[in-house]
Amino acid sequence: MGERRQRSGRRSRDNAQIASERIAILFTEAERASRQGSDALSERYVSLARSIGMRYNVRLPARLKRRVCQKCGAFLVPGRNLRVRLREGKTIWTCLKCGSVSRKRTVQRPTTAGQSAREEGGREKKSGEPVSREAGEPVGKAGNR
After folding, report:
1. Cβ distance 53 to 64 under 8 Å?
2. Whole-angstrom distance, CA of residue 63 vs CA of residue 134
């Protein structure tokens, strides 16, 4: 029996780290290309990033995965090839290239303006009417007094 040869080259953990770095670089290049108006080049960068992830068994980070259409593989840029709508506690993303629709539940957070008004003890401002801080009554409404 022969001696066991020592493995040369990088270990798999190192390969995964390098793959993750390359994926991040390719996504930044895809963003730069899409800003310059080259959609084909940005799609190519995304395709390369996804294939590197599959080859080295590295998942795309969630923030980068959301930037890619799952159906056609387009690099999504809101306003250019992505429509974003907020409806009934959901965020609806529509790819304008292939028409694919993605719905995600949104977490509703209280607004900071409402919180600051409640913390000061004053009444919240409703529908654009100014509120005096001392009395808590609407300002400029003579008929309501």
Report:
1. no
2. 46
Sketch out the chain's domains with CATH numbers.
Answer: 12-105 (1.20.5.420)
DSSP 74: P
Q: For residue 110, how many C-alpha atoms fall within 13 Å in the half-sphere facing its CB?
A: 9
Q: What is residue 9's predicted lDDT score, i.e. its pLDDT?
A: 54
pLDDT given at position 44 = 96
Coil, helix or strand at residue 131: strand
DSSP 123: P
What is the CB neighbour count within 10 angstroms for residue 46? 27
pLDDT per position as a tens digit, 54-112: 999 999 999 999 999 999 999 999 999 999 999 989 999 999 999 999 999 988 677 77
